[in-house]
Amino acid sequence: MRSKAKRLAATSVAIVTAATVLAGCSGSSGSGSGADGDTLTLWTHNAGNAAEYKVVQQIVDDFNASQGKYKVRIQAFPQGSYNDAVVAAASARKLPCILDADGPNVPNWAWGGYLAPLDMSGSETAVADQLPSTVGTYDDKLYAFGHYDVALTMFARKSVLQAHGIRIPTIDRPWTADEFTSALAALKASGTFEHPLEMGTGGSGEWWPYAYSPQLQSFGGDLVDRSDYKSAKGALDGPEAVAWATWFRSLVTDGYMAQKGGSSPNDDFLNGKSAIEWDGSWDAAKNAEKLGDDLAILPPVDFGQGPKIGGASWQWGMSATCGNKAGAQEYLKFSRKTQYFVDFAKATGTIPATAAASAQIPGYQPGGPYEVFTQEARKFAVVRPVTPAYPYVSSVFEKTAKDILAGADPKKALSQAADQIDANLKSNNYYAG
Amino acid sequence: MTTLLPRAGARPPGRGPRTAARRRERLTALGMVSPAVLLLLVFFVIPVVLAFALAFTSARLISPTPAHFVGLRNFTLLFQDPVFFRSLLNTAVFAAVVVPVQAGLALALALLVNTKVGGTNFFRTVYFVPVVTSMVVISIVWMFLYQKTGLVNHLIDTFSLGHLHGPDWLNDPSTALPAIIFMSVWQGVGFHMVIWLSGLQTIPADLHEAAAIDGADRWARFRHVTWPGLRATRTFVLITITIDALRLFTQVNVMTQGGPLDSTTTVVYQAVHTGYDQQQTAYASAISLVFFVLVLAVSLVQRFLTREKD
Amino acid sequence: MATTPTPAPGPRRRTLRRIPGHLLRSALALLFVFPVVFMLISSFKPDQQIFADLGSIKAFLPVGQLSLDNYTAVFDRVPAGRFLLNSIVISAVTVVLGIVVNSLAAFALSRMRWPGRRLLLVLIIATLIVPFETFALPLVWWVNKLPWLELNGFHLALTEGWLDTYRVQILPFVANAFSVFLFHQYFQSIPKELDEAARMDGASWFGIYRRIVMPLSGPAVATVAILTFLPMWNSYLWPLMVVQDENLRPVMVGIQYFFQLNVSWGQIMAYSTMITVPVLALFLAFQRSFINSIASSGVKG
Do the chains contact at C4 and B126, CB–CB below 8 Å? Predict the structure, then answer.
């Protein structure tokens, strides 16, 4: 009995000591990650998104079959937690060689040393031929490229607009702010809609800056001052921004829009709960299928500085810690065949990044019903601020916009947001190298 | 904690065997706690110390430059941050309401189903259903129910015969936190009902019988037999609910993200939000550290006060 | 079954007195299941209909176009079987290890005399105050440095880094202050005279733990089992951070698969139903021993 107790204690001590010693011994393990010889790991945000995942898999299969040297292996993550997985992997120095990134995060990841600059010369598609919003650059270097972009747009039923005597706007003659307001007033007055406008305010996260900062820009404001990215003052809290915020809040107080929209805005629109939906091009195919010719795809409203939409969607890059950069670049170059631009856009209902690809996709060809999206992306797209501070700016904007909708004083809320962003920029030394 | 009471029962006289027995007891005890202590050391103490140490640095979630020591800068910023104080307040309010309400309702439920009437097993299980459903899923479902035109308001409308109209629960700064409180109690109460039930079972039935024979009514029996018999259970229930309440995060993260107008932001939510979404790792660590010290201080004071009374 | 039911006067009055109690119990039952019924019913409806029904009692009724489409879609989207299996393995192993490790510690803390035990108990309880999310990232970095002995062919090999394993999802959650605390509270209600008597008969401490205290602690074991099982079943942040291989992911990570540009709410409801049912079944299986076992255990002092 006595020896049993001693043995128990002794074993425990031995385990502690061993664990501590071993933990201490294990130093850093080599420099590269994400590659085991010529087998490279690729990460994508597409777990659960079979359509887009299949395209990635197709490219990888084709690449693996096309040559004998490298082998690419896919690991997919659910989009909602993709960034957490990447950050965790980076902190453990376990980033894959090839990974995709949401466009606005590219500067942050490049600055943070996650991504390495790319040289895509010699691939089938020239980077210069892409929609500008599908190219991720930082410090004048190419860090990522996307196969597609998406466009913000408004959906409505032609029959509903006509019944209320509302003009159907076109790309060349979008609604003005006044026209938009009187359209909403007419729809509201009909009594058919409790909230005629659905802007997706039930969402959260990156949707907020993506969906609403273009309206701020159309008013003449912006998230930060883009001349040197050193302050948000003036851009985010100037008179134009206050005008935007006042208008934004008035949509709620006038009863045109719910302070928090439904959990599935597109279903609400299709169910006839809302008349006009501010949404993305990704819902176009579904809406067209349900509404047929009655579907009206409307360009964004011009609030003064021209219509604006957000630019940049998911893009591909290479990690800075990649242990086999030659192989990663080889794969990325291979993926730049027009065929794959076509496949991605078709599978996801998005805008192909090149004209060559557009020509091959029904609906996106010149004169097709979705050509309007390509035009929007070319004419109206504004990329989100190209600064490593973007994730912070985005988070502050989301909270501020929500507060404004909930009734916060526009001027005060915006100036507080600008102060916070400025303090963050300053405390990070303006994100210099 | 009554373990220090002198033991009844004789011990063999003589110094030698006795000290040997004590030493053996000590060694065995050490062996028995060491797996748990070792695991806590490796998977809790070390990472927490690392996390807290970050509070004194410039660490960011993503950064090209290594973190450096910045002294108390993060704490100075923290104490000027109105959102932090709002988070503290909300957390305190949440705990202050949820702890007594959930513990009390759980006890009431336990008494209600602690009978031999048919169907008790059925009711116990039904009350437990929300507990086994993931909080993420529950929050999603209640978001639907709480909508302005959702089911909760529909019911209010029906039962008041159209006289009352519910608010837009989660979008009104005055109702968002109460809505989350209600849902959280609803979700957790079944679990603590079960804990109370297992406590009730430890009370010997003959005590109740004796009291009944003495002519004690139900309330008297509850006060003099049941309540004292639940002493250990009580401590456990109160501490677990309190800790859970102070860690309020998932519901807020799914349903309101701290809004509207900071009316539902909590300390843990703020720590996660600034640490992950805003990438300010050091600042988030400072929030966690301050919160840890605060809660520890409160619970030590509480322990000290209750000990004096004993 | 000599438990606590309140002895009541006459049989007739008893029946009458029970009616309000029954009504109350049933009303409460409705309150507790209605959101879950909503989840179940919605899992059979297409999205557009879920939202059309949302504001009325129809949300709880199996009306409209019902189908199993959401369930088939779930299997197309998520390797649900694999995830369920992983979750069962991870949760079960954690529960078993947790019961052993934490009850051993609680036994030493509550029934044995040694210096520092009160302080240790306070320290262990204090660990509850720090939410997991706040030290998750340092923990990722740290577990990636931990060594592990691996049987490689016929000789042991030392490997570094715990990412992409089952153990990284299990071992950090084995030692649990809640469980230690619950066992501690429970063990204190078991009379110490039992130990004394056994000591006199020459039993070892470990023997007392194994043959006297643990057999009397059925409800505590069941409570700890559920207490450990639920958070393990529901964990998603940690597995996402430390598991890159899809084959090792647990069920809650699967929920994230449905939040795409267009959220498929019907599928979320179907998947939620699928992952909730096993837990409920488990509770049903457990609850008898959980609640009723004490009656026969003789903790009457």
Answer: no
CA atoms of C42 and A226, how far apart (whole Å): 47
Q: Number of structural domains, chain C? A: 1
Quote the domain boundaries for residue A72. Answer: 35-148+313-377
A303: Cβ contacts below 8 Å, ≥ 6 apart: A177, A215, A218, A219, A244, A247
Please indicate, yes or no, if residue C240 is contained in any of the structural domains: yes
Is the Cα torsion angle A415, A417, A420, A426 positive or negative in sign? negative
ipTM: 0.85
Do A297 and A337 lie in one domain? The reply is no
In a domain, A394, yes or no: yes
**A177 and A122 within one domain:** no
Does C206 contact A at CB distance below 8 Å? yes
Rounded Cα gap, residues A125 and A127, in angstroms: 6
Q: Return the residue of B nearest to A392 by Cα.
A: B278
Q: B206 and C2: CB-CB below 8 Å? A: yes
What is the model's pTM? 0.88
Residues A45 and A116 in one domain: yes
A371 burial (CB, 10 Å; 0-12 / 13-18 / 19+) is middle
What is the b/e burial string over C91-118, where b = at least 16 CB atoms within 10 angstroms of the residue's CB?
bbbbbebbbebbbbbbbbbbbbebeebe
Q: Do A49 and C160 touch (CB under 8 A)?
A: no
- For C186, the closest chain B residue by CA position comes to B232
- In whole angstroms, what is the distance from residue B247 CA to residue A70 CA? 48
The boundaries of the domain holding residue C194 are 78-257
Same domain, A77 and A144: yes
pLDDT tens by residue, chain A, 433 residues: 445 555 544 554 444 444 444 443 333 334 578 888 899 999 999 998 889 999 999 999 999 999 999 999 999 999 888 988 898 888 888 899 999 999 999 999 999 999 999 999 999 999 999 999 999 999 999 999 999 999 999 999 999 999 999 999 999 999 999 999 999 999 999 999 999 999 999 888 899 999 999 999 999 999 999 999 999 999 999 999 999 999 999 999 999 999 988 888 999 999 999 999 999 999 999 999 999 999 999 999 999 999 999 999 999 999 999 999 999 999 999 999 999 999 999 998 899 999 999 999 989 988 899 999 999 999 999 999 999 999 999 999 999 999 999 999 999 999 999 999 999 999 888 988 6
Are residues A162 and A139 part of one domain?
A: no
Cβ–Cβ of A263/C263 closer than 8 Å?
A: yes
Distance in Å, alpha carbon of B87 to nearest chain C alpha carbon: 15
B19 interface with A at CB cutoff 8 Å: no
- Residue C284 located in a structural domain: no
For chain B, domain boundaries: 81-309
Among residues C98, B130, C255, B282, which one has the least CA distance to residue A78?
A: C255
Residues A49 and A66 in one domain: yes
Residues of A in contact with C51 (CB under 8 A): 262-264, 267-268, 271, 273
C177: contact with A, CB 8 A cutoff: no
What CATH number has the domain bearing residue C157? Answer: 1.10.3720.10
CATH of B81-309, one of 3.30.300.30, 1.10.3720.10, 3.40.50.300, 3.90.180.10: 1.10.3720.10
Note whether A263 contacts B144, CB cutoff 8 Å: yes
When divided into structural domains, chain A yields a total of: 2
